[in-house]
Recover the amino acids of this structure.
């Protein structure tokens, strides 16, 4: 280990790799050097001056956040000079700070408060009138209270560097410096709230969380966001059976602290007034509230009758229900002998797995996107549809100078840092991709990320073209919802002789249609006039309106289980709260099964997960990873499902944007507010 | 004129720079000069031209004081109330202007004719009290001149005292309209550059400049030859010479005269320096208020191109040099060399962390030497007459002469060339002809407003860098601000502290908050509301800022506080305890 640098920190002899910053070396050694502006992953600012340390031989105190360790450097982090400097810096920061902690959202978890408590002086010499500016609302999400701001530039940097949006700046100068949004009086951006989350003080607050609670009144439940397929961990702050906020400040999960507007704020569909809280049954042509037992008995009876008569029961599953639920639903279908099982497939994972047959380690994780030397994006607007994957790519480019190639229909945010970007109409991307051969050959290991237009033959062409390059390559098949991948892996596709979802809708002789967490009738009609329709959902969707029985389902935040993200990483859902009247889909399945006297085995998520691990190819993943809230990659490539059953032609992406999310998005007040807000910088 | 019509010009401007964003200030000027102000629409337009977020364009508009977001009057009057002008009655002048036009600073007359603003030092202290009317510097605004201004009559060009006798820099100041190419050539100009390009190696130039003991005359006093020697000899990146013509230190007005009257001396110096460091592109960053100096310098650049002293293969030497003039827009901090580079790259003038030093990684992350105008203007002399002769003019460790800007309460404010080691007493009493009206000397700031003040008893000190450092102050930019016995030191500190509070870039918290805090305390004492602990607090706050920030601005802001209060403590105490001014003997405060 001769290439390590030796230095002394607070009397301890330590070693670190050359180039290690003193602040990081100290952290590793368990010594805290306080800082506001220093932030892992962001460019160095060195502006707050909290991290000043004493270095033997240096005429002045030096900022530990920009000082690399050097051989024989002697550093003091608690000398009287350093202790004084911290005190004074905090006193400076408080001069124009309103000290309105009792009414500040941040009170109790404020870095400034904590720092002053730990390092600050007991009293201030400041007796002048503070500079005051009124609070401003910049968007439905973002509020800014300038006097609380300590100008650490974290928000500006996360927006510039992390999100690539560059919506914030610091105007004026000196003590009048002020964070200002891109539109002058308001903000037009991703509304991701990263600026709010990263703010060490209560200067940036969210329209969702502000003045709702004291932070210590909440319980924190880490679970997986139910919106897109990226699989971000979101930590829900829950108080009195109510979600007050979402964030991921503990940086657990694959996404670290990243969240988009949906993961951070769009949990609010839960309390939408239209949320179903009672089963509904069609009586005299109208849906009326009935008890759970009445509804369940009705469903079980009708299903039993149809089964007994060898009638056709079609089942359409969900992209959002858990693996356990999907697995159980497939068992259910088998038990009642129906091959008519499907779900809306948003990406052609079937063809990809088939094309990659026999290859292990061919699927990339979200982490891989941060480390790969090059990334090729084909037919996808990542910043809009997979914001976390886009974030990873951007971070990779910023931190590792990775090379990015983009082949999309229109301009995308990734163009800004792409080595090359090409425009191609959907379906014609592969011709454009082949022109990148020389670039791709010389760019090192590659991750190919593709959207729903790359399916069937064009996907096979893509895979064989990439194979011909002779560079190590992995793939991410983009899937649109939180458990699209799991729905496919658990086998929610037609069995032998089974109908696909569109075929079920078109079959005039369908006897029953059971729709779980999907809304196929939003843009299609049900041909069978007499079909008995059962719908499990949170809301009275177009499909639910056609139902004979509607069963109110719990959302992902109201249940346990596992989901598999678009990369094939399995993660655990934790239950954050109960919503009155609704039941997890698994419970509903189980109760219907019981009503039909079917023995489908235990209906506890953890027991089903054991079954999944034992029987679903690729799901034999280490339990401790899942149990501790980690993400386990399904491996090797899953080949459980006969590829032929999942027709590539039926693959259809959701076309969601940053501010839409299928049915749930329509019932999220914050997403609706953002859609209605002025502007449209990133909106489509 | 519309934004669309400006597009060809914008593209041409962008083409001058290695990175589009560096054209941000030029584009903002282009818009303001043609459309009168920078509208929100224009911010978006500029963002589009430069692939820059509008949030970051707006940062610039608000950071640089010369940019306007709203239309101004047909004429703009910017009245300087910085310390040197204040000493000569700027507050009275501003009050009379306000009364006459019935507007306050920041306002425009109802007929849209005149916009009035109060500004920090315009670096024309020889004209104090002075103002800038559109592009013209006018002053001294006493009696007649002020009357002409108020009546709207034409104001004759001022005739302040200037050294014209050399030996190093000022000899061509004798041409009031400037020493243009023919004159400069007839005076032996460009001989040194020819020598440097055709007959000397870069190492030889650096050796000669080092032997001449040429120090950086912008204020830091770093040996120029040594600075150049830090530039990596073999770097795949281009090397840049950047001329710091962002003269802004209150009390200083030397570079303006070089730009206006002897621009070719600067250009010749640039050629020599560029040859020494192997640079083929030089940027000259001129402060935004120096409109006429920039124009004159631009004329010299054109002449040099026309006569084969700039461009490709200069004088058959196969050495190339291109010069780009870059205008600042009103920010003192941009005189700090790293802030200047950030500004030149199209950012707010935020100083950068050192290391890396600009010589290793400066403009566009390439090796860069930033030299002051005066430093470069000394180079032709050194190469022409030999380093020994230059060195002999100065002290043991600082060669040559310096242009001393002497202002304040002297009988003859002006720009004096004198040996580097001239004594302060000699400067005040011989060159500037002593204190005006036979008053007694009270205090002197020897090197611009950042330097610690000296008392009347401390003026037997040589003005070179080392001697003044030894005397507990600094030579800085050689801006000498003289204060007579009528001066209220609290009011002097008020001006200084207001300056620093106004000019702090806001990047580092101790400086951003500390400068404002100090200013508020001083202003409160000045208003007769001092508290017993104020003076100790001021000293403590100044000490708490000092040495804690990225650049030395915070230190510079601390030094006046520390030196004024320490050296004139009883006067400050009397202010605090009685609310009276012992200097002016006025009842409450010293406000005129």
């Amino acid at each position: 280990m001769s290439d390590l640098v030796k230095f002394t920190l607070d009397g301890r002899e330590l070693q670190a790799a050359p180039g290690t910053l003193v602040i990081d070396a100290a952290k590793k050694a368990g010594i805290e050097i306080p800082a506001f502006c220093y932030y892992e992953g962001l460019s160095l600012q060195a502006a707050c001056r909290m991290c000043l340390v004493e270095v033997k031989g240096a005429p002045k105190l030096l900022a530990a956040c920009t000082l690399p360790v050097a051989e024989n450097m002697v550093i003091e982090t608690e000398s009287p000079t350093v202790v004084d400097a911290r005190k004074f810096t905090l006193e400076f920061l408080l001069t124009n700070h309103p000290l309105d902690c009792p009414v500040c959202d941040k009170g109790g978890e404020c870095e400034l408060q904590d720092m002053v408590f730990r390092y600050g002086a007991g009293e201030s010499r400041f007796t002048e009138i503070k500079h005051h500016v009124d609070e401003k609302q910049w968007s439905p999400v973002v509020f800014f209270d300038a006097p609380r701001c300590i100008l650490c530039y974290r928000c500006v940097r996360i927006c510039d560097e992390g999100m690539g949006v560059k919506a914030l700046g610091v105007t004026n100068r000196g003590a009048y410096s002020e964070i200002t949004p891109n539109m002058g009086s308001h903000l037009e951006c991703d509304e991701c709230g990263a600026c709010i989350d990263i703010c060490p003080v209560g200067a940036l607050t969210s329209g969702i969380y502000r003045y709702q609670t004291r932070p210590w009144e909440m319980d924190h439940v880490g679970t997986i966001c139910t919106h897109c397929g990226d699989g971000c961990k979101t930590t829900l702050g829950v108080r009195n059976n109510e979600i007050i906020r979402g964030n991921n400040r503990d940086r657990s999960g694959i996404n670290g602290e990243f969240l988009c507007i949906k993961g951070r704020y769009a949990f609010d569909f839960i309390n939408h007034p239209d949320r179903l809280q009672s089963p509904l049954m069609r009586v005299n042509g109208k849906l009326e509230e009935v008890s759970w037992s009445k509804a369940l008995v009705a469903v079980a009876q009708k299903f039993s009758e149809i089964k007994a008569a060898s009638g056709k029961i079609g089942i359409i599953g969900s992209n959002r229900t858990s693996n356990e639920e999907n697995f159980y639903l497939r068992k259910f279908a088998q038990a009642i002998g129906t091959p008519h099982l499907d779900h809306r497939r948003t990406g052609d994972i079937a063809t990809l797995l088939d094309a990659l047959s026999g290859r292990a380690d061919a699927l990339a994780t979200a982490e891989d996107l941060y480390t790969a030397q090059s990334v090729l994006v084909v037919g996808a607007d990542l910043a809009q549809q997979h914001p976390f994957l886009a974030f990873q790519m951007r971070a990779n480019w910023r931190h590792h100078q990775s090379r990015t190639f983009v082949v999309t229909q229109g301009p995308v945010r990734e163009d800004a840092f792409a080595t090359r970007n090409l425009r191609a109409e959907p379906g014609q991307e592969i011709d454009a991709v082949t022109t990148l051969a020389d670039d791709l050959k010389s760019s090192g290991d590659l991750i190919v990320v593709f959207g729903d237009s790359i399916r069937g033959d064009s996907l096979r062409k893509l895979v064989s073209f990439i194979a011909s390059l002779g560079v190590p390559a992995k793939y991410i098949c983009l899937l649109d919802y939180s458990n699209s991948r799991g729905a496919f892996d658990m086998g929610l596709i037609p069995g032998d002789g089974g109908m696909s979802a569109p075929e079920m809708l078109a079959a005039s002789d369908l006897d029953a249609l059971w729709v779980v967490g999907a809304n196929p009738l939003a843009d299609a009609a049900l041909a069978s006039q007499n079909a008995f329709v059962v719908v499990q959902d949170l809301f009275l969707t177009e499909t639910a309106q056609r139902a004979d029985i509607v069963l109110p389902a719990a959302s992902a935040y109201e249940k346990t289980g596992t989901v598999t993200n678009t990369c094939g990483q399995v993660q655990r859902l934790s239950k954050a709260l109960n919503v009155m009247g609704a039941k997890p889909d698994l419970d509903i399945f189980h109760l219907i099964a019981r009503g039909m006297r079917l023995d489908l085995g235990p209906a506890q998520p953890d027991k089903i997960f054991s079954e999944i691990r034992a029987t679903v190819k690729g799901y034999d993943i280490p339990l401790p990873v899942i149990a501790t809230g980690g993400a386990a990659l399904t491996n090797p490539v899953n080949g459980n499902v006969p590829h032929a059953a999942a027709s590539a032609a039926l693959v259809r992406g959701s076309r969601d944007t940053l501010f839409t999310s299928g049915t749930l998005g329509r019932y999220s007040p914050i997403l609706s507010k953002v859609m209605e807000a002025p502007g449209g910088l990133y909106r489509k | 004129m519309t934004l669309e019509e400006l597009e060809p010009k914008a593209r041409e401007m962008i083409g001058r720079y290695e990175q589009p964003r560096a054209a941000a200030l030029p584009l903002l000027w282009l818009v303001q000069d043609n459309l009168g102000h920078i509208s929100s629409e224009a911010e978006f337009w500029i963002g589009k031209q430069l692939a820059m977020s509008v949030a970051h364009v707006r940062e610039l508009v608000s950071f640089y004081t010369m940019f306007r977001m709203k239309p101004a009057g047909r004429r703009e009057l910017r009245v300087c109330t910085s310390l040197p002008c204040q000493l000569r009655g700027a507050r009275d002048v501003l009050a009379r202007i306000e009364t006459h036009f019935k507007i306050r600073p920041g306002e425009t007359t109802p007929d849209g004719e005149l916009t009035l603003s109060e500004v920090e030092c315009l670096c024309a202290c020889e004209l104090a009290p002075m103002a800038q009317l559109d592009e013209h510097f006018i002053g001294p605004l006493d009696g007649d001149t002020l009357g002409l201004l108020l009546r709207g009559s034409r104001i004759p060009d001022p005739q302040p005292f200037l050294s014209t006798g050399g030996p190093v820099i000022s000899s061509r100041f004798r041409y009031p309209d400037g020493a243009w190419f023919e004159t400069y050539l007839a005076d032996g100009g460009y001989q040194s550059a020819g020598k440097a390009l055709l007959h000397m190696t870069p190492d030889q130039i650096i050796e000669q400049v080092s032997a001449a003991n040429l120090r950086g005359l912008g204020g830091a006093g770093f040996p120029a030859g040594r600075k150049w020697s830090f530039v990596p000899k073999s770097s795949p990146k281009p090397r840049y010479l950047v001329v710091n013509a962002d003269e802004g230190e209150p009390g200083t007005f030397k570079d303006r005269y070089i730009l206006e009257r002897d621009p070719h001396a600067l250009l010749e110096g640039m050629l020599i320096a560029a040859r020494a460091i192997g640079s083929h592109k030089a940027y000259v960053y001129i402060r935004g208020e120096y409109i006429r100096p920039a124009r004159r310098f631009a004329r010299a650049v054109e002449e040099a191109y026309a006569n084969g002293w700039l461009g490709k293969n200069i004088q058959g030497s196969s050495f190339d040099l291109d010069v780009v003039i870059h205008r600042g827009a009103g920010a003192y901090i941009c005189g700090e060399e790293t802030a200047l580079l950030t500004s030149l790259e199209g950012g707010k003038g935020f100083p950068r962390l050192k290391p890396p030093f600009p010589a290793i990684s400066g403009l566009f992350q390439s090796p860069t030497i930033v030299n002051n105008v005066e430093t470069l203007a000394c180079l032709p002399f050194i190469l022409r007459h030999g380093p020994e002769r230059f060195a002999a003019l100065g002290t043991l460790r600082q060669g040559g002469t310096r242009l001393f800007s002497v202002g304040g309460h002297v009988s003859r404010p002006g720009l004096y060339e004198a040996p580097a080691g001239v004594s302060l007493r000699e400067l005040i009493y011989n060159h500037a002809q002593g204190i005006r009206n036979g008053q007694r000397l009270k205090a002197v700031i020897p090197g611009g407003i950042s330097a610690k003040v000296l008392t009347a008893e401390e003026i037997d000190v040589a003005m070179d860098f080392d001697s003044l450092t030894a005397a507990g102050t600094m030579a800085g930019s050689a801006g000498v601000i003289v204060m007579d016995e009528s001066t209220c030191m609290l009011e002097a500190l008020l001006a200084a502290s207001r300056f620093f509070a106004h000019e702090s870039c806001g990047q580092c918290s101790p400086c951003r908050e500390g400068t404002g805090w100090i200013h508020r305390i001083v202003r409160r004492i000045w208003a007769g509301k001092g508290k017993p602990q104020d003076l100790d607090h001021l000293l403590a706050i100044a000490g708490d800022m000092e040495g804690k920030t990225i650049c030395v601005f915070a230190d510079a802001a601390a030094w006046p506080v520390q030196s004024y209060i320490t050296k004139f403590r009883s006067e400050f105490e009397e202010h605090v305890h009685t609310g009276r001014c012992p200097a002016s003997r006025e009842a409450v405060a010293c406000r005129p």
User: Anything to note?
Assistant: Residues 98-207 of chain A form a domain with the Alpha-Beta Plaits fold (CATH 3.30.70.20). Residues 292-308 of chain A form the longest helix (17 residues). Chain A touches chain B through 48 residues (CB under 8 Å).
